[in-house]
Amino acid sequence: MRLCCRVPAIVCAIGVNGVLWASSSMAGAPLPSNLTASAVFRPALERMWQSSATFRRQCGRLSAAPQLHVNLLMEELARHPSSYHARAAMKRQSGTLVSVDIHLTRFEDPIALIAHEIEHAIEQLEGVDLAAQSGTGNVWKREDGAFETRRAIEVGRRVAREVNAAEDPTASDGQEDSGSLRLHAIALHDRFPLLTGPPSGRVSPSGRQVVFSSYASLVAGDGNKTRDIYVMDVSTRRVTLETPGAGGHSANGESLNPDISRDGRLVVFESVAGNLTTVEFARGIPRVFLRDRQTDIVRLLSTNARDEPANGPSTTPAISADGEAVVFISSASDILEDTAGSTGVYLIRLASNTRTRVDVTNQGQVRSGQSASAAISADGRYVAFMSRADLTARDGSSPADEAPDGNGTFDIYVRDTVKLRTRRVSQGRGGRDTDGPSYHPAISGDGRFVAFVSEASNLTHDGSKRVAQIYLRDMETGATELISRAPAGRPGDAACARPVVSGDGSVVAYQSLASNLLCDDKCGPSGRDINLLWDVYAYERPVRRTIRASGGGREEWMESSRGPSLDDTGRLLAFMSTHPSSPSDEGHAENLFIFDWTRR
Questions:
Q1: pTM
Q2: φ, ψ (nearest 5 deg) of residue 125
Q3: For 377-404, what is the mean pLDDT?
Q4: Among 76, 141, 144, 210, which has the minimal tally of Cβ within 10 Å of its Cβ?
Q5: What is the pLDDT of residues 121-153, one digit of tens each?
Q6: Given this model, what pLDDT does residue 594 score?
Q7: CATH class of this structure's domain 198-357
């Protein structure tokens, strides 16, 4: 059954799958139902849909925002300076963009202008803060007071190029887009990812497997229509479901935040499902699980001393590369018999099932203050984490005692679980307190290097106040290095997040909104960053080289990318992006990309 309705200039149809699309009455181009246009623009829209993958992706983004209506209108008389041929009037309700009226004031080929103005609407859907980025050179104010962006200009030109190339092959400049050396792309079907949250996928330290969470049903038997954990063998591309419910049923809750051991045998993850083990319990509370992929046995790790499910949420586990230890965050009060204080970091030795609290002082004391975001070294000896608690060593027993942590905000610590020593990583020059929070730690396989994000300005001489940068601390020498730097050494000009480190600390990958990490001034196509969104970068420390992983060839990606992960060598890099996984992918859901970035 099909229900049709006619409105001026557009015929809209509701198909049996419930998805609403609009189609031009001239040639049937399946434009989104929330994009309407005056009749004069229908031929241009038809050409754009038929010939431009970029425009089809724009339509996919509009379709993913059903609360928004975009209308293309012909404005007979220009109301603004004659140099402006288009303007967009945007309306919000309760902070949500609900309508965009695009007025075009000339009768020349409007393709670039239409795509340009639609891209301004997409910038707002993506949450781009134009005022905050107006100092980067990629955003400025026009004479009429409206913001203009290099991103929208480039997208308009790109759509026009694609249409011209399709209609006149001789118009091509003959330069193929070499792209980037992508090994794989996997659909995750996540339409609303948390852009600064933990990664949805991780590369095993060996680089042979990738573990990830996905809404997509990638194998038979996954029928729960929620996020599950999968593992893909990188060489064979074989994908296996790691969160089946017991008894042949689907899991009755979502699973996320996975990690995997070096040999690919053990997978840890958090889940709200209650039927993953042979003993069923109430679902709905996040708990930490371990799956042995060789025996297919799933084990609940976040338990109390009686081996019962702990009485509070447990999240974001990480497993040591050797598969001997797991660290996770929990607000439960019965993980240990003497547990006290706020949310803490816990370590489990898998063979013995012994568990300890990690976010403690040298004397084993728990101090007031939340802890989170744990990372573990390859052998499970060192654990890095962020904490508001003052865990500094100041018992007077050593001349190397640290000054108290008195900044009242998150700092980075590393716990040596063999020597039972806790050291503060995020220290200002001269051992002083930092003047801003630090978070998102990552640790190298050998435990020597710790990468983290900080908004402090006094970690290094080239720090940047109130702009989150990536730093690397050498735990042997005590040196702290700014990683998110432009070629001339200046800090990144916008926020960075979620660093990861290779096994020996030689490669650091992270995500950033900065536009100056590849070049400082006049940039070619491969060096500029104009998308105003999160991109993923890798920094090779020995040669001081930064590359952008989320993009390649001659054309920059215009979608957000996040959550990098590296193997031990730093060669294999995985991350998430809403960039299409293939030319036929015209939706706006997140995909997992896997690259060998060193071959660029």
A1: 0.85
A2: -60, -35
A3: 80
A4: 76
A5: 999 999 899 988 887 788 998 877 889 999 999
A6: 92
A7: mainly beta
Cβ contact 372:343 at 8 Å: yes
For residue 535, give Cα distances in angstroms to 20, 144, 559.
31, 31, 8
Top pLDDT among 12 and 255 is at 255
- pLDDT tens for 178-204 read 444 566 888 888 777 888 888 999 999
Conformation bin of residue 463: beta by default, left when phi > 0, alpha when psi is -120 to 50? beta
Neighbouring residues of 468: CB distance < 8 A, sequence distance ≥ 6: 453, 454, 455, 495, 496, 497
Rounded Cα gap, residues 287 and 370, in angstroms: 19
Could you give phi then psi for residue 3, rounded to 5 degrees? -105, 125
Rg of the chain over all Cα atoms, to the nearest angstrom: 26
- Nearest-5° angle of CA 586, CA 588, CA 589? 115
Inter-CA distances, 194 with 122, 240, 243, 331, 591, Å: 18, 25, 22, 21, 13
pLDDT in tens, 350-377: 999 999 999 999 999 999 889 999 999 9
What pLDDT score was predicted for residue 554?
Answer: 64
Residue type, 51: S
Side by side, the strands of the sheet bearing 30-32 are 3-7, 10-14, 20-23, 30-32
pLDDT, one tens digit per residue, over 253-266 is 999 999 999 999 99
- Tokens representing residue 541 in the block: 């420390």
Delimit the domains of the chain by residue range: 3-171, 198-357
Is residue 208 within 8 A of residue 235, CB to CB? The reply is yes
Structure tokens at 411: 């700092």
The number of residues in the chain equals: 600
**Pick from 270, 265, 261, 291: nearest CA to 213:** 270
pLDDT score of 274 more than 80: yes
Confidence bin at 11 (pLDDT 50/70/90): very low
Per residue in 566-588, pLDDT (tens digit) is 999 999 999 999 988 877 776 67
CA 545 to chain centre: 22
Sheet holding 239-241, edge to edge: 201-203, 209-214, 228-233, 239-241
Structure tokens at 552: 């390649």
Q: What residues have CB less than 8 Å from 184, skipping those under 6 apart?
A: 210, 232, 234, 237, 592, 593, 594
| Tokens representing residue 111 in the block | 């393709």
| Distance in angstroms (rounded) separating the CA atoms of residues 32 and 63 | 6
Burial class of residue 240 in the structure, from the number of CB atoms within 10 Å of its CB (0-12 exposed, 13-18 middle, 19+ buried): middle
The average pLDDT across 544-554 equals 82
CA dist., res. 579 & res. 587, Å (int) = 9
